Amino acid sequence: MPVAARKSVFGLVGAAVAVAAAVGFYAVYSGPPTAGGADANDKALVALGETVYRANCASCHGVRLEGEADWRTARNADGTLKAPPHDHSGHTWHHPDQVLFDYTKRGGQALAPKDFKSGMPGFGEALSDRQIWAALAFIKSQWPADIRDKHRQINERSR
Question: Distance (Å, rounded) from C-alpha 43 to C-alpha 144?
Answer without folding.
Answer: 17
